[in-house]
Amino acid sequence: MIPLQFSSAVAAARADGTPVVALESTIITHGMPYPQNVETARLVEAEVRAHGATPATIAVIAGTLHIGLEDTALEDLAQAKDVAKLSRADIAACMASGGTGATTVAATMIAAHLAGIAVFATGGIGGVHRGAELSFDISADLQELAQTPVTVVAAGAKAILDLPKTFEVLETLGVPVIAYGQDMLPAFWSQTSDMPAPLRMDSAAAIARAQVMRTAMGLSGGQLVCNPIPTDAQIPSAELAPIIAQALAEAEAQGISAKAVTPFLLDRIFHLTEGRSLQSNIALVLNNARLAAAIATEMPPITT
Ligand code: PSU
Ligand code: MN
Predict the structure, then answer these.
(1) Which of 126, 215, 221, 304 lies 20 to 30 Å from 114, alpha-carbon distance?
(2) Which residue among 85, 88, 125 is best mutated to probe the pocket of ligand 1, counting the most ligand atoms within 8 A of its Cβ?
């Protein structure tokens, strides 16, 4: 038996067959500082509700996999120190030992699929880190997209990563990468990159139909929807490039490795931009929540 706990709102949505959008918790515990992390988590949940779906923020608390968090649990998680960062490799061990942990994109996809939820909104996915040819640091998020049937809405991958290598690996793994409403891939803090998107779709219905077809054909895995950041929230890449370079140099000098890399870089970029990177991050997550709610509305209802 898997210890699963649905929030009252998610349980009601499942019973009624109304749309649900999964949300991750690592962005709360390891991606943003307190209190902006919990404020953002609440805004994202509200945005999903305002667009006709029920938010299901996912986390492991004392060994139980929560699909949807009540507000006090969200607040506790946002304030907690030393919460584990869980991916495919460690989520089961954490649950078996009664531990508490936040779910990354990979672990959130696993949990969403267990709960029958087909759509998930986040900010950015993990990917191939710069220098991966030496470190072999490639996020488990990419493999998860190849095997778990959940459509993930993100703003692309952050420029802290090696973007061309990240998209090469996704192609190798057979993951559909869809730019929403434009020909070029977005690049997280900017609306466009210099990379053409493998696929372009202009409606939530088209994205939902593609996932349904994929699953019907027996093709495993999900889809990555790359939704460009709103115009007024962009940060020019020329402005961020030296900041990212500095954060990467500091990570290297301090010997930061493995799962500590992404949280370290996000925190350094937040401080080096005096919080501006966070404002952009919040705007794009909200934008992704809106699109995810629209896609969830077009998906077949959850069957329990
Ligand atoms: N990218 C972001 N913000 C984040 C993350 C990635 O822009 O908070 C988090 C997500 O939870 C993602 C994880 O799944 O970092 C990837 O970590 P790693 O690179 O260690 O796989
Ligand atoms: Mn990694």
Answers:
(1) 126
(2) 125
